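Page 37, continued from 36.
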């Protein structure tokens, strides 16, 4: 299940429109923010991929999917839309998550809030800018797994 979550995260991300002159969408910023562990000597395209991969791995590692087990959600795909900004200092801010249940939104917020300050902010025309970033978090709910685990515990 974690592999399908990672795949869904990598396939789509970050096509937001900028809110003002100091914001530049991730998809078009001249120099993307540099995620921890990414080599700053990579091309911008490679840095975009590195950042997207880093965030996806962070989500897969830290998102507690079991939060969904007692929410009464039907079996099938669950999608949480996550939006945040990397500010001019490389800090994550303005986190928003929208999903089928408040507890899932809170968990998404918690996990994004754990992302450490980025190595460098995004740059446009040689100046640091705020970079909006969006990604859907998609995973499957299979309530039978939870029911089987409860039967095995009895």
């Amino acid at each position: 299940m974690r592999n399908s979550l990672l795949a869904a995260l990598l396939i789509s991300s970050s096509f937001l429109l900028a809110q003002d002159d100091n914001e530049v969408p991730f998809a078009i910023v001249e120099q993307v923010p540099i995620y921890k562990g990414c080599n700053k000597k990579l091309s911008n395209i490679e840095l975009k991929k590195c950042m997207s991969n880093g965030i996806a791995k962070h989500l897969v590692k830290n998102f507690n999917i079991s939060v969904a087990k007692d929410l009464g959600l039907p079996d099938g795909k669950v999608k949480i839309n996550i939006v945040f900004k990397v500010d001019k200092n490389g800090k994550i801010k303005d986190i928003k998550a929208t999903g089928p249940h408040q507890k899932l939104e809170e968990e998404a917020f918690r996990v994004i809030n754990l992302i450490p300050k980025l190595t460098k902010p995004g740059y446009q025309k040689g100046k640091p800018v705020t970079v909006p970033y969006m990604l859907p978090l998609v995973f499957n709910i299979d309530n039978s797994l939870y029911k089987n685990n409860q039967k095995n515990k009895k």
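Residues 52 and 60 are 12 Å apart (CA to CA). Flag for discussion at group meeting. The chain has one domain: 2-153.
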